[in-house]
């Protein structure tokens, strides 16, 4: 494997030049903030523990800052980009800056939420700087759709990172925390400052590491059934589970029976439960 030249990655001037040449103005609507620091993207690749045999899927590659850093290390990289202009330009950027690795790159021009298959071998890792406004649904969709993804590292808004990695009982523990935990062990993996982006966002960013569970949660309930309980419990998070799950169960009495059968106090609240406990409640719905 030939090693790319040290200046293959994009610096601040490169990013601005590329954007200007393409007539790209980062949009808030798509949460676009381009990484302009080569050290940051290399740090992300290191933290993601990308290996030479990995097939990496990247969502929202933008101008290609992280894509190039991933191509330095991984066997293959498939990027999913929704933006017409960015998707059209990315293959040329890869070919120009890392020609020896260009045949290891594939582009899927699509909304990540609609992607159900990817070209080439099954992905083993997901590494992405996710747009703030769609980070959680995109992450959950990719983990659900591609069970071959073993390791994930996403850069998201700091507040979203806290939510994803929150343990039961935490103030910010909620639907994203529990659903992410259904698929993986989740933890915070670092912080990213605002000055490595262009334009600089108004919020800090955080890295979240997700390692796929080697054994799925043991339950006779389906994922859809378990997620329905999670959604109901947090839709009215201030209420006790007996009250919050009344609509889901059909009545408060039926909800109470399911909770008792699952070994969960009807007076508990959703924010205190583990994903395993939500699965037990789903199993005991009458």
UniProtKB/TrEMBL annotation:
The keyword Methyltransferase is assigned to this record: yes
InterPro entries associated with the record: KsgA/Erm, rRNA_Ade_diMease-like_C, rRNA_Ade_Mease_Trfase_CS, rRNA_Ade_methylase_Trfase_N, rRNA_adenine_dimethylase, SAM-dependent_MTases_sf
EC main group: transferase
Catalytic activity of the protein: adenosine(1518)/adenosine(1519) in 16S rRNA + 4 S-adenosyl-L-methionine = N(6)-dimethyladenosine(1518)/N(6)-dimethyladenosine(1519) in 16S rRNA + 4 S-adenosyl-L-homocysteine + 4 H(+)
Domain of life according to the entry: Bacteria
GO annotation, cellular component aspect: cytosol
GO molecular function annotation: 16S rRNA (adenine(1518)-N(6)/adenine(1519)-N(6))-dimethyltransferase activity; RNA binding
Documented EC number(s): 2.1.1.182
Protein name per its UniProtKB record: Ribosomal RNA small subunit methyltransferase A
UniProt lineage: Bacteria, Bacillati, Actinomycetota, Actinomycetes, Kitasatosporales
